[in-house]
Amino acid sequence: MTWLTDALMQVILLITAALMLGTIVAVVVQRGLRRRRLRREAVLDAQVRLLVLTATVCDDDELPELLQRVDGLDADAQRHVRRTVLGMLRDVTGEAATRLRAVADAAGMVPAVMAAVEHRSAAVRSDAAEALGLLRPPGALRNLRSLAEDRSREVRAVAIRALGAFDDQSATALIIAAHRTGSGVSNGLAASALLQQGLVAGDAVRRALDDPDPGVRHGATRVAGILQVAGAGDALVGLLRDDHELVRLAAIRSLEQLPVRSAVPRLLEMALGEGVEGEAAAAALVALPPSWTADAMAQLSARAAPAARRAAGLPAREALA
Amino acid sequence: MSWLHDAVVAVIQALIWPSAIYFVLSNTFMLVLVLMAGRHFSRYLRRRGHRGEEAMAASPLSPGVSVLVPAYNEAAVIRASVRSVLDLRYPDHEVIVINDGSSDDTVALLRDEYDLVPDLRDLPRRLPVRGAIRRIWRSQGGPVPLIVIDKDNSGRSDSINAGLDLASNDLVVMIDADSLLEPDALLSVSKPFADDPDRVVATGGVVRIVNNSRVIGGRIVEIRMPKQIITRIQVVEYLRAFLLGRTAWSDLGALVLISGAFGMFRRDVLLELGGLDPDSIGEDFELVMRIQRWIRDGDRDARVAYVPEPVSWTEAPSTLKVLARQRRRWHRGLWEVLWKYRGMLFRPKYGRIGSVALPYYWLFELFAPLFELVGIVILLLGFLTGALDNTLALFLILVSYGYGTLVTLAAVVVEEASFHRYERWRDLGSTLWAIVAENLGYRQLTAVWRIQGWWAALTGRQQVWGEMTRTGFVGTTTDASGRPGQAEGRD
After folding, report:
1. Fewer CB within 10 Å: N-end or C-end of chain B?
2. Residue ranges of A 148-177 with Cβ closer than 8 A to chain B
3. Count of CB atoms within 10 A of residue B27's CB?
4. Strands B262-266, B303-314: parallel, antiparallel or unpaired by DSSP?
């Protein structure tokens, strides 16, 4: 090969060797920097964690002084306080959470989060939405409402989840809207936000059971039983005949938690059918009061497919090998 | 014998450039995958703060998961394994252990440990199962239901089918009884199903090597590089091909392989597809290929995803004998699945699976050992006959081994910038040494074993996989992790 000269080969060799050396140096430098950062964080942790923890359990009259100490920390330490508080807020509620929010405020977190709402990066806006849901500062709901209609699907999803922390009808309306088919927010996430709202969402959930959008009906049906939504029983029975399988399945499972006697004939009909619906309906029948289902269980025992029989806890017809 | 010399020279000169081009393409492709994975990790980790796994862990609406644990002669580890799966952080999961005709007291241990009672409920029989079911046991209480199926020996795939038949949750996950799972493994791997429930039909999680790491109470408390060089090299291989490679394939929408040691699937899809193929050696690969074909044949808007978060830890072969068996088996499985699905190759209907992933697996996975060995033969013959000048020989070595080493180093840079699970400086040194050592015998040996596996498949020889012995984990406690001297059920 005339073009592959010794000189060219030497150049290729040198370049390869340099690249290898470069990657090794890169790995070593990465590791060195990370370890240095971890050491620094450990020092900061020792400095601020006790302060933050004390603030969550101290007497009311001691809190102002502790908050003043947080306010007086340097920028690095305050950043660490914010990280610590956000991590802890996911695990605590009540008075301890309120105290933590005060600490976050003293560490200058609220203005930083509010500013991040407008950031051009979707990841930063998502972080802001998450923090707004945890911190709930004044103005959080307004900002979350805006983020719930963000151009980024990721931001919308985080904002909807965060809205679950607010006992507010406008938040409920946005969460219900996020269930719509094609909203870009997963049904499970939006339904979990409704659950987090609890009874506040009850009326909206009951109305949503009749929504023309199957996504909304699905989400509302999933939570109606767990929330024990008053007056939802008949609607759930009606949804056992919905056009969409997911809605029918959710209705079956909801009726396990919100039993309605008039559901029995339709549940039996479904339990005598095949597939996942049959199994779910059989399991739901078992969960209903036995006095309602004696006949249905007898029919199941005689006519149901093995999978539905198993779901209903019925014994095997034939002995095992 | 000048004609012989001339013939050898002609052959060498005809093969040298195709070989060089092959290695350049192969390494470049892998480099692209590594870089793509690096970009994916960067985005994935950036979003860690708001992914919502905590909310999912607390939500009663999270999809239910049935964990299938096939077990064959796992008496040494079964109690701890099941305990660690029962203790996984997840709002709604059940555990189904399938005893595949063990000759030890696997079932008796489970019965005693978990106070099991006979489960007399009917059997769905939605899937054909070859091994006769002797008895089914179930736990009487506890937050996580446990079912134990005791059946005749019929292999791992058939055992999983038996478990799948009894699974009652929307998602099923298959794991090996000797794997250690991260506490949040189910949360991590089910997250794509929760985020995109209409489209995601299967997910795979990263499997890493646990040899020499400290394990207490069924949990890894200190991650360390293995002691043996061949296991260290496997760590590097897993990193490059499994963690980075599969992440990139997933991004490309062309993931065709999820490790059997940790894969999660929609139960209805598996039932529709008839479960695992009990006759397939590469049953995990075969299943994902069948799913991909099902998606495209049915023009379904569905996908298979990969989760880069480490979820499962497994013990890798630490002896050449065991490693040889594993590689022969893997390559035989690769060949059988590629051949079975050859009809998908280059068919536009199969999108990137048919046009990118399968050609890649044919060319750079199946044929790789052949090219590797041909390259070595060319080099040796070239030197012996004088047909290869030093510059050309050096060039061939450089594009195969030098470039390959560079790609692996790039993979280590990506790992260091993302998950960096091996934190000690000495582990970094071991990693770098393993990258070099991979080229000094290991690659050549594995190429030979892979060819043997392929040959065994082509000649229809029955492959005997044999029993393998694990070395056990370091720092185990006998009551909790209880894994010393355990048998290696699956390579």
Report:
1. N
2. 154, 157-158, 161
3. 21
4. unpaired
Question: Quick one: three-class SS letters along B299-311?
Answer: CCCCEEEEEEEEE
Q: Is residue A307 part of a domain?
A: yes
Mean pLDDT taken over chain B: 89
Enclosing domain of residue B289: 33-63+170-359+468-488
Residues (pLDDT < 70) of chain B are 1, 310, 462-491
- Size of chain A in residues: 321
> A with B: how many residue pairs have Cβ under 8 Å apart?
133
Task: Using a CB–CB cutoff of 8 Å, tell me whether A218 touches chain B.
Answer: no
CA–CA separation, B177 vs B98, rounded Å? 10
CATH number reported for the structural domain that contains residue B482 in this entry = 3.90.550
Check CB contact of A287 with chain B, cutoff 8 Å: no
| B65-71 and B171-175 beta bridge pairing | parallel
Of A227, A185, A183, A188, whose CA–CA distance to A206 is shortest?
A227
CA distances B12 to B5, B27, B182, B374, B386, Å, are 11, 22, 51, 10, 11
Give me the pLDDT at residue A145, please. Answer: 95
Say if A5 is an interface residue toward chain B (CB within 8 Å): yes
Q: At what angle do helices B320-340 and B283-297 cross, to 10 degrees?
A: 20
Return d(Cα A166, Cα B193) in angstroms, integer: 26
Question: SS in 3 state form for B456-481?
Answer: HHHCCCCCCCCCEECCCCECCCCCCC
> Has residue B236 been placed in a domain?
yes
**What is the per-residue pLDDT for B135?**
95
Crossing angle of helices A6-57 and A94-106, in 10° steps, is 120
Residues in chain B within 8 Å Cβ distance of A158: 50, 52
State the SS3 of B192-255. HHHHCCCCEEEEEEEEEECCCCEEECCEEEECCCCCCHHHHHHHHHHHHHHHHHHHHHHHCCCC
Sort strands B214-216 and B487-488 into parallel, antiparallel or unpaired.
Answer: unpaired
**Among B184, B469, B182, CA closest to B325:** B469
* Domain-embedded: residue B273: yes
Number of domains in chain A: 1
Residue B48: predicted pLDDT = 86
Chain B contact for A250 (CB, 8 A cutoff): no
Tokens of residue A223, six digits:
């939570």
Range of the domain at A283: 262-314
Could you read off the pLDDT tens digit of each residue along chain A, which spans 321 residues? 567 788 888 888 899 999 999 999 999 999 999 999 999 999 999 989 999 999 988 888 889 999 999 999 999 999 999 999 998 998 888 889 999 999 999 999 999 999 999 999 999 999 999 999 999 999 999 999 999 999 999 999 999 999 999 999 999 999 999 999 999 999 999 999 999 999 999 999 999 999 999 999 999 999 999 999 999 999 999 999 999 999 999 999 999 999 999 999 999 999 999 889 999 999 999 999 999 999 999 999 999 999 999 999 998 877 555
How many domains are contained in chain B? 1
Please answer yes or no on whether B47 and A154 come within 8 Å at the CB atom. yes
Q: Out of A9, A28, A317, whose CB is closest to B391?
A: A9
A280: in domain: yes
B120 in a structural domain: no
Which pLDDT value is given to residue A3? 77
Question: What is the Cα–Cα distance from A9 to B352, expressed in whole angstroms?
Answer: 37
In B12-113, at which residue ranges do the beta strands (DSSP E only) sit? 65-71, 93-100
Cβ neighbours of A61 (radius 10 Å) = 7
Scanning every residue of chain B, which has its alpha carbon at the shortest distance from the alpha carbon of A219?
A: B61
Residue B384 lies in a domain: no
d(CA B358, CA B360): 5
Residues 6+ apart with CB under 8 A from B266: B170, B171, B172, B193, B200, B201, B202
